[in-house]
């Protein structure tokens, strides 16, 4: 396991490591999306305002910032911890810490104290911080740099599969099949103990699987480190605003769909549409993995994307408690997503800019419309969120070399957007403007992502042609 960087080996087979890490992506996506279920649940349990309920995301994603800040500080002054202990040990540490966070839900639910729930979420967020720093960078190293966006989109697709079924399964465990459960804190105890047990099983699997080692022999320190790369600096803000926008939209969907002027749905019914929001991300990420695969011809890409879209749509249809008629609007977004990929021409930065512009437009429709148009607008955002994290991440760390893990920690630090942006939207939702107009906040988030995509596409030609990266 102490081999040098194996990316120069002749045609290494990374299938087993990718499958193993993909399982991890699925599990942490599932648990992360449970926050969207917890927010309306805890809001009613403790009679919270929107701002107070958004402390769920503030504590969870705030842990990303503090954990990543600590990691960056250590790597800057003492050397990269991941380079010293290895990606495998880093991922194991993250999984076990996440399991501890899940276990802490038991005393929080037993004593029914909101502060204890927030503390458990903070510990859980710290564990996921380590996973974000290690697993995302690790996947990008399991093959050529040209195909990094495609690989990360594939693994993120399974992460999105976890976020898709979480509202259904998690919503059933907490709300009941028809929302008939009495709102009590104890309803969260068993689900999170089960999550802890599954995480430990995943840790045991990773411990027993042989994973290739990636380590750098370079030890140069001083200067700005990873921050000397301009595309990374802009990428940090892109991650901040993307995660902030995505989390804010997901956090308010259930409350938004409860509005009489929109759909007037119950929480139990809204969770099915929340699943569609995250399911859109899953479809888009799988399509992105195919579209950004440089080894496929255009004909094969088209065929594989159509078959994949149909298959994943059927999976979502089988998971959610909705009729085909209630889901049929989603087919329009699938077609639009397919067209956007074609216009993107398999270029990560160009595709990112197109998707961000579409999301800004969809949210404007959400704000200005009522009824089904407003509802469809906010739900359509999910499918165009799909490739954003993967593309921003790989564009930002492209060419960083020995600074890859350090740069990854800075990008994960920027997930702080998931803590602050929903909080800002919560303030607006609590004001006279209300929930619907509060969606103006993520509009501005996606406009910045649009700017970053345009910048990378036009100003950083080497990012799109990473074989020519000079690492300046």
Automatic annotation (TrEMBL):
GO terms for molecular function: transmembrane transporter activity. Keywords: Cell membrane, Membrane, Transmembrane, Transmembrane helix. CDD domains: MFS_FucP_like (cd17394). InterPro entries: MFS, MFS_dom, MFS_trans_sf, MFS_TsgA-like. It is a multi-pass membrane protein. PROSITE patterns: MFS. The chain crosses the membrane at residues 21-42, 54-77, 89-108, 114-139, 160-178, 190-209, 234-257, 277-296, 303-320, 326-344, 351-368, 374-397, 409-427, 439-457. It comes from the Bacteria. One of its GO terms (cellular component) is plasma membrane. The keyword Cell membrane applies. Residues 17-461 form the Major facilitator superfamily (MFS) profile domain. It is found in: Cell inner membrane. Pfam families: MFS_1. PANTHER family: L-FUCOSE-PROTON SYMPORTER (PTHR43702), PROTEIN TSGA (PTHR43702:SF3). This is MFS transporter. The lineage of its organism: Bacteria, Pseudomonadati, Bacteroidota, Flavobacteriia, Flavobacteriales.
């Amino acid at each position: 396991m102490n081999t040098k960087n194996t990316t120069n080996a002749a045609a290494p087979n990374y299938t087993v490591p990718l499958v193993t890490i993909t399982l991890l992506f699925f599990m942490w996506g599932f648990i992360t999306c449970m926050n969207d279920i917890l927010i309306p649940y805890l809001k009613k349990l403790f009679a919270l305002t929107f701002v107070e309920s958004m402390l769920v995301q503030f504590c969870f994603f705030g842990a990303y910032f503090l954990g990543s800040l600590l990691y960056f500080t250590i790597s800057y002054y003492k050397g990269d911890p991941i380079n010293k202990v290895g990606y495998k040990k880093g991922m194991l540490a993250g999984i076990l810490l996440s399991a501890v966070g899940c276990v802490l839900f038991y005393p929080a639910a037993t004593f029914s104290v909101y502060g204890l729930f927030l503390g458990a979420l903070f510990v859980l967020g710290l564990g996921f911080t380590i996973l974000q720093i290690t697993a995302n960078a690790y996947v990008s190293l399991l093959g050529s740099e040209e195909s990094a966006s495609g690989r990360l989109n594939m693994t993120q697709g399974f992460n999105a599969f976890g976020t898709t079924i979480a509202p259904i399964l998690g919503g059933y465990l907490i709300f009941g099949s028809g929302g008939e459960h009495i709102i009590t804190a104890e309803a969260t105890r068993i689900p999170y103990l089960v999550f802890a047990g599954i995480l430990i099983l995943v840790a045991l699997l990773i411990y027993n699987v042989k994973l290739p080692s990636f380590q750098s022999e370079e030890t140069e320190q001083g200067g700005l480190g990873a921050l000397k790369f301009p595309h990374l600096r802009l990428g940090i803000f892109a991650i901040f605003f993307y995660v902030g926008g995505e989390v804010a939209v997901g956090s308010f969907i259930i409350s938004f769909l409860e509005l009489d002027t929109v759909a007037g749905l119950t929480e139990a019914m809204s969770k099915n549409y929340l699943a569609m929001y995250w399911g859109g991300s899953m479809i888009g990420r799988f399509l992105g993995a195919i579209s950004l695969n440089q080894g496929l011809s255009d004909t094969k890409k088209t065929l594989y994307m159509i078959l994949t879209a149909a298959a994943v749509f059927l999976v979502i249809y089988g998971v959610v408690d909705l009729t085909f008629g209630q889901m049929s609007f989603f087919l329009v977004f699938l077609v639009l997503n397919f067209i956007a990929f074609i216009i993107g021409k398999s270029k990560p930065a160009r595709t990112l800019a197109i998707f961000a512009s579409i999301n800004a437009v969809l949210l404007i429709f959400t704000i200005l419309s009522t009824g089904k148009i407003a509802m469809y607008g906010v739900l359509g955002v999910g499918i165009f969120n799909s490739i954003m994290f993967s593309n921003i991440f790989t564009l930002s760390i492209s060419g960083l070399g020995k600074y890859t893990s350090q740069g990854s920690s800075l990008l994960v630090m920027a997930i702080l957007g998931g803590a602050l942006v929903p909080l800002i939207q919560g303030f607006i939702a609590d004001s006279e403007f209300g929930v619907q107009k509060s969606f103006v906040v993520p509009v501005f988030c996606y406009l910045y992502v649009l700017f970053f995509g345009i910048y990378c596409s036009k100003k950083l030609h080497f990012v799109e042609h990473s074989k020519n990266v000079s690492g300046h």
